[in-house]
């Protein structure tokens, strides 16, 4: 279906049905992935992992191969980092994950018994690269997380998920890390929550994790972004944690110490989509029934408004008058904004809604003027 210009009709339902829950307590609690942006030294990896094991995380992360914008930045410690991850597994009992971007990375991870691999945003944009990884994953039992592509293209994200699913991987999850933008904004990567919500609507069983560190780009926003994700019923959070964030070899501004992470994790509230309370569910159903009735009324009212718009369109055609009437449109906006303010409604929301209605009026009158009758 086409909602908000997001076409999700292409996805293959047979594939969607294959998703297995990424973790046992899905829909009951949040899944926590944490660890340094990059594995730098064995001591840094192990000390972070020990602290995170006491903070009860589910999965330890560390980048071994880092796709960097420019070649002179630190591009990852390489295969020796996988041995450090193996030490994390044996010493702390934590499961471990890292990013893969090509066949060689996948083969090295499979050889080292890495529990989960993720496909990064810069790789998800390339169907060739994703297919190469999917082929290399074939026949393995590894779990796979797929980050959104850097550009806000839901089809590419869905396509990557489908490619990996078609290679026989049963445990697949998605990571929402936000989207690149030229706009200067408080986020490093624009969340554009609607895209992840669409993905969730398309694949209700898919595990969706919010990479709060990459959306935020700085420590200050981590809590706000993570709580928002949990309120939107994400299944978990991925966060970058470093023993000495300011000295990190990559992404220093967005990493936090294990202590800060542990406190933040405690403060965040997981809210399941459904709860097991008959009385509450009955009153919720009741309220939702009222919303259904109001939505019906809104649609009927919009329909009545459009009938009048069509009559005005016919009048404009007969009298050879322009469709756009800026004076009248300004009056409508001013009147409705005053009303919205009185009622405590967001003027941004009401103006967006009116603009959409006005655009539809123009489209309808345009068709009437074009019609040969
Ligand atoms: O008042 C008109 O002339 C209309 O056609 C109605 C309407 C509207 O949707 O309210 C539509 C187009 C004009 O620009 C102004 C207002």
Automatic annotation (TrEMBL):
Its EC number is 5.4.99.5. One of its GO terms (molecular function) is transferase activity. Gene3D superfamilies: Aldolase class I, Chorismate mutase. It comes from the Bacteria. Residues 278-369 form the Chorismate mutase domain. It holds the Pfam family CM_2. GO terms for biological process: chorismate metabolic process. The keyword NADP does not apply. The keyword ATP-binding does not apply. Keywords: Transferase. This is chorismate mutase. It comes from Cryomorpha ignava.
